[in-house]
Amino acid sequence: MKIGFIGGGNMGGAILAGYGSADPDNEARIALFDKSEEVCAKTRERFPRMTICSSGRELCSSSDVVILGVKPQVIEGVLSEIAGACTSDKLIISMAAGVDLAFLAEHLGAEIPIIRIMPNTPAKVGEAMIAVCRNKNVTEEAFATAMKIFAAVGQAEEIEERLMDCVIGVSGSSPAYTYMYIEALVQAAQANGMSGEKAKIFAAQSVLGAAKMVLESPESLEQLRINVCSPKGTTIEAVETLFANGFMDKVKEGFQAAVDRSIEMTEEKKK
């Protein structure tokens, strides 16, 4: 089975790298088309047995699974290029934000099996969270193949497409909010005499550990927070200050801004 990637940048490149590294035999199954010669050269350097294609259409013709790792602004041109090479025995996977299954089917054909995903940048370190939805043409076998590819870079969950805008807010964009939180901790630690590098390790490892607790503990988020707060202690002082300054509400506002923009982008594609 040939897995083709159109676009080897941040997200497409992360999934390609994860899949290529997951099994020694996967390297020979990968094909890539990217307009950037530098991207192609760097990817070939890491995976010398992969195939570099000269166009998206060539890649689509020779691949069983085609992963579209291109931005929403250029997706329509890419779809137009590959449409003639798309047949019902191929699986098309798109990660373009704001581009729904209906739009993809309109440009590729009503009979084409299509999966839409929303990954996030931690795919680069094998810790992605990927939302997955599919049209009625995707068989269980094809879906299992796709989920195996995604497993190489993190976790994947199937959702209803109506929740894809929500996913943008809760996982697609949320690494950026988390980086801001860590950055604030680092700056505060520096103001108290700690070096930036040392503060980054302390803050980031604490976030990593807390996230692991959330995933592995049977306790609620509220209880996990309470467990850290001793009466009249340091943590409760910090938590009460954050609550008083609207910390939770501000995070929710940022989340909603990302969701609203995702909805706008989808509507713009329909015009």
From TrEMBL:
Q: What Gene3D superfamilies does UniProt report for this protein, alphabetically?
A: NAD(P)-binding Rossmann-like Domain, ProC C-terminal domain-like
Pathway field of the UniProt record reads:
Amino-acid biosynthesis; L-proline biosynthesis; L-proline from L-glutamate 5-semialdehyde: step 1/1
- UniProt domain Pyrroline-5-carboxylate reductase catalytic N-terminal: residue ranges: 2-98
Locate the coiled-coil region(s) and give their ranges.
none
Task: Tell me the InterPro entries matching this sequence.
Answer: 6-PGluconate_DH-like_C_sf, NAD(P)-bd_dom_sf, P5C_Rdtase_cat_N, P5CR_dimer, Pyrroline-COOH_reductase
List of residues binding NADP(+) = 6-11
Q: Which GO terms describe its biological process?
A: L-proline biosynthetic process
Mention one GO molecular function.
pyrroline-5-carboxylate reductase activity
Which UniProt keywords are present, listed alphabetically?
A: Amino-acid biosynthesis, Cytoplasm, NADP, Oxidoreductase, Proline biosynthesis
What is any one of the record's Gene Ontology cellular component terms?
A: cytoplasm
Superkingdom to which the source organism belongs: Bacteria
UniProt-annotated location(s): Cytoplasm
Per UniProt, the enzyme's principal EC class comes to oxidoreductase
**Catalytic reactions of this protein:** L-proline + NAD(+) = (S)-1-pyrroline-5-carboxylate + NADH + 2 H(+); L-proline + NADP(+) = (S)-1-pyrroline-5-carboxylate + NADPH + 2 H(+)
Q: What is known about what this protein does?
A: Catalyzes the reduction of 1-pyrroline-5-carboxylate (PCA) to L-proline.
Which family is it part of?
Belongs to the pyrroline-5-carboxylate reductase family.
Write down what this protein is called: Pyrroline-5-carboxylate reductase
> Which source organism?
Lentihominibacter faecis
Q: What is the lineage of its organism?
A: Bacteria, Bacillati, Bacillota, Clostridia, Peptostreptococcales
